[in-house]
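Lab channel / #folding
Pinned by the channel admin:
"Please post every new chain as: sequence first, then the structure tokens as a reply. Keep commentary short and put observations after the output so the thread stays searchable."

First post following the new format, from NK:
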Amino acid sequence: MKALQLAPIARAEGIVRLPGSKSISNRVLLLAALAKGKTQVYGLLDADDTRMMLDALLKLDIRIDTRDFSRLVVAGEGGIPKKKMDLFLGNAGTAFRPLTAVLAVTGGEYRLSGVPRMHERPIRDLVGPLRSIGASIDYVGKDGFPPLAIHPGKIAVKGHIKIRGEVSSQYLSALLIALPLAGGGSIEVEGELVSKPYVTITLNMMRKFGVEVAVNGWRSFDVPGFSYVAPTEIYVEGDASSASYFLAAGAIAGGPVRVVGVGKESIQGDILFAEVLEKMGAKVEFGSDWIEVSSAGKLKPVDMDMNHIPDAAMTAAVAALFAEGPSVIRNIGSWQVKETDRITAMARELRKLGATVVEGPDFLKIAPPAKLEAGVAIDTYDDHRIAMCFSLAALGGVPVTINDPDCVAKTFPAYFQVLADISHH
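Reply from TO:
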């Protein structure tokens, strides 16, 4: 297995221009494919997950000019032209879930599969609501999990479509995107809706493509049966989840570190990670499209509900290694159904660095060591975010090894080079 050795980093300082948001990129690609007309997409993320969505759409005969990735042109025809196809979607949940819903309501014979981990990520809470409106979907392997076989169904929306909210917001986002193609309808959320900011991104993107969803206190959603319309051009803002690593570096190791591409006008919930750093005592400044963080001394511990920022919460867990006392990160049960079981994986790797960790089904309590263990090899579980957040351990004055560093290609292929650019040894 490939490994990357990071030397101790004494100070982090500089400016980072962020790659495009994964969450926005894959929503924009799919909506542009489903819209009538041409959409010019600027700032699209070029990484494994977006390539998975792009390749799937090309196989479905969506016309996309990919010659210039900085200005991609999608020519949508208002639906999915190809009615039979096998699609391999890797471990890209932001491609697998919405494509499942869209293909189920547009009619056709499709088989969707992914890497072994994707086949361990539950999908019953999306398939069930789709079946309730007449979709025909079979589990090819284990009941409740991918791979899936999708057949033409008899779609008819009557009454409220019920969907569980506490497992993953991607199920709701997938249903929201697909429902206009089925003539619209109402969705009722059962239980607590996790990761609300990601649903907000979905609603924002649908609005840009001409579909306005009525939100009733996050308990129900009324989706019109309008067709998607191409907005001519759309700009993808920088990835706020990716920003978290550099902002945390500024808080831990001096700074200032400025990220460009997200700011106070961002539609992504993960910019709220800056508030976590403020509570930990860091100095935070916002511009319209930038955020800057610098250290104001040793970090303070926090006890916070981070349900709204589950990806950036991983960065907070590593930042807790540099706090003056124990921190608690709460309401993160959705970590269990991500690229790996992140609660177990994060606890294991934090302990390697000397932390005392108590883990529960939806929380981590992290007591930092007096000094980080030197020379630790971090296992990454083919999870890009584990690789990126644990690189920050090098800011503790110790060398750290990241196993399988290339897993960052899922969302940020150049991550380690960008980190090196702001690192001072």
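NK: The longest helix spans residues 93-106.
TO: also worth noting, Residues 8 and 398 are 5 Å apart (CA to CA).
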